[in-house]
Amino acid sequence: MTISALLIAVFICIQPAIAADTVTDVRIWPSPDSTRVVLDMSGSAKYSYFTLKNPERLVIDLQDTKLSKNLNKLDIDSKLLKKVRKSTPKKKGDVRLVLDLTKSIKPVIFDLPPAGPYGDRLVIDLIDTKTKVAKSEKKVGSNRDVVIAIDAGHGGEDPGSIGPSGKYEKHITLSVAKKIAALINKQKGMKAFLTRTGDYSMDLHARTRAADRAGADLFISVHADAFTSPGPSGASVWLQSTTRATTEVGRIFEDQERQSEVLAGVAQSIQEAGASNDQYLKYAFIDMRMEHSRDQGYYVAKEVLSELQHITKLHQHKPQSMSLGVLKSPNYPSILVETGFISNPKEEKLLTNAWQQNRLAKSIVQAVKKYFDRYPPDGTYYAMKKKSTIKHRVRRGESLSLVAQNYNVSISSIKTANNLKSDTIRVGQLLSIPQ
Ligand SMILES: [Zn+2]
């Protein structure tokens, strides 16, 4: 008998003794339209489940399992789940859990292998499919607000990266995102939308869909970077890779529902072109939108980097691109901001500091304002503001300070409005004079 065969034999012998699994903890993550219940297990769960009506219940049977968590101490703050309790199992040695629900819900149950700070888990997603989808707020009106979707990375079960002193990325991203949103909502002509408002998990698709429904004009995903060694530091800004963008165009084209949503705005043009069934033309329209949004994303990314450089070290000075699941809507420019490295002890401290979080938020909002000043979406307050900006053609003998004096505005505001790097202006140059 070889050594490995012997090991296998030993393993088989001891198998029955270690078979009993234990539920060590039960965690509940409510979000506005779903609730996730996580059972922390000592090993991978062997389970089955069924639902019961009047009242609505979900029953989960865990084979060869013990329960070491006191279910009376669970903190349940969910619109869908009333109670988690134990019931008599069908078989001795099993655990039967009953989840008392507030309405009929189709559960999604799956197990997860150990990852990060967690061991084996059994995840029960209770999703309220009847939640009314918020209708797009972006509509007519000549000077509507621009809508900026702020996406706090990770959340709930997914802590993101973890710093050397144990700080979670998901907490940093949420507080920075909330600060950005609060600042945006103080600006005239802007409105923020948070994809995630609390500590719960949310898949990437749900994030972009929520932003789509909110009528976003811009999508900013907030993250903190990590590396295997503590050295790397600094912020960076990311865009979708061209390859992934092309893949996403293909996916939208294949998905009738999403295709018609994306084409909603151009449907008339397609009809006018007498090509409502022209698949090639439809594909081209989606592709054009994606490309346009990606181009615009590049401008936003550049503005964000040029603001961030004043308040933090930059890890990358130019916008970077990579295949990113969360940046995939063709409807608006999307960027991902890595606010710094949580794996770097100094930056971990900085990123969890409210003062630095405020500075990050201010810089990002400043960049967003500059971007919309230059590229206002039609029908927005920003578009109206840009139209009403006075234009001045530089005459012989005029200096920047003279122009500023004549219009009673500051030199720096003219420089910002025209993206001037120096005080030099030339005869015949057309300047926008901000008001
Ligand atoms: Zn992240």
Written overview of the protein:
This protein has 435 residues and is an alpha/beta fold. It has three domains: 16-127, Immunoglobulin-like (Sandwich), CATH 2.60.40; 146-380, Aminopeptidase, CATH 3.40.630.40; 389-433, Membrane-bound Lytic Murein Transglycosylase D, Chain A (Roll). It is built from twelve helices and 17 strands. The chain has helices spanning 3-18, 169-186, 204-213, 242-254, 256-263, 267-272, 279-308, 345-351, 354-374, 381-387, 400-407, 411-418, and strands at 21-31, 34-41, 47-52, 57-62, 65-67, 81-87, 95-101, 106-112, 120-127, 146-152, 190-194, 218-225, 236-240, 320-322, 334-341, 390-393, 430-433. Strands 11-10-12-15-13-14 form a six-stranded mixed sheet, with helices on both faces. The protein has a five-stranded mixed sheet with strand order 5-1-2-9-8, with no helix packed on it. The chain has a four-stranded antiparallel sheet with strand order 3-4-7-6, with no helix packed on it. The longest helix is centred in the C-terminal third of the chain and has 30 residues, at 279-308. Zinc ion (ZN) binds at residues 153-154, 160, 169, 223. Residues 153-154, 160, 169, 223 line the site of zinc ion.
Number of helices: 12
Provide the number of structural domains: 3
Order of strands side by side in the largest beta sheet? Answer: 11-10-12-15-13-14
Q: What about the largest sheet? A: 6 strands, mixed
Distance between the termini: 88 Å
The SSE string, one letter per element, is HEEEEEEEEEEHEHEEHHHHEEHHHEHHE
CATH topology of the largest domain: Aminopeptidase
- Any idea what the CATH architecture of the largest domain is? 3-Layer(aba) Sandwich
Mean pLDDT: 86
Any idea what the radius of gyration is? 27 Å
What structural category arises from helix and sheet content? alpha/beta
Number of strands: 17
